[in-house]
Amino acid sequence: MRISVLTGAGISAESGLKTFRDSNGLWEGHDVMEVASPQGFAQNPELVLDFYNQRRRQLLEVEPNAAHLALASIEKSFDVSIITQNVDDLHERAGSTEVLHLHGELLKVRSTYDENLILDWREDLHLGDFCEHNSQLRPHIVWFGEAVPMIEEAIRKVEISEIIIIVGTSMQVYPAAGLIQYANPESQIYFVDPNPSLTSTDRIKVFSEKATAGVPKVIEEIKSF
Ligand code: OAD
Question: Which domain holds residue 69?
């Protein structure tokens, strides 16, 4: 059985990473367009690099939680694709082997000269850190207004899945939020979020709880099929 799992910031909240839109979330303290857009980077690159440097340092201090681990564990029984909006690597560290990052990865940077020149990066990134073409390196993050190159692959995964599990996302950012429209009409959808943006229907079963509580329940149910 094929399962696609669409995750957002909420799955990493219990690991200690802030979400974006909850109260005290990342976007409450920052102007999104200043720190997460190409225009913001052009205007004040130091501010943008500093924002992602802080995120990267925090990421290196936290660990995957029980929800990430539970999703990795079902690979033994099912064909699982994780499609994440998160730029952290907690799914990979939990052991998931197929993780598609729609919005990029915090532990990678790329050349501003050649977008296909991508490097692993665990340190702070500074102005003056250049690629081999002597161009500034930037975070490997999909900023607002930029294309989401992985979306086509994500759509293909969703289309062929019998089960879709959505965890910890406000479903406000497109095209990620639109993925659910590509689900096969026969598929069963689960949604785990303490403040869910979807309501239960015949096809959608909502667990209004935190990821570490809700994800294991969804998995129990799937295993009993
Ligand atoms: P949001 O911050 O918009 O939404 C977080 C969701 O997580 C909310 O629905 C919360 O109710 C839920 N949540 C909070 N704590 C939780 C927990 N312990 N367990 C489960 N869910 C919990 O984050 P995203 O939907 O991921 O993009 O945001 C989408 C995109 O917007 C991000 O990828 C980011 C942002 O702008 C970029 O930066 C490109």
Answer: 1-17+64-103+147-225
Same domain, 55 and 160: no
Closest ligand 1 atom, CA of 26? 2
Closest CA to 193 of 174, 179, 206, 177: 206
Active site residue 126: no
Non-local (6+) Cβ contacts of 59 within 8 A are: 17, 88, 89, 106, 107
Q: What is the pLDDT of residues 24-71, one digit of tens each?
A: 999 998 999 999 999 999 999 999 999 999 999 999 999 999 999 999
Ligand 1 mean position, distance from CA 8 (Å): 5
CATH code, domain with 92: 3.40.50.1220
Ligand 1: atom nearest CA of 86 is 33
Q: Model pTM?
A: 0.97
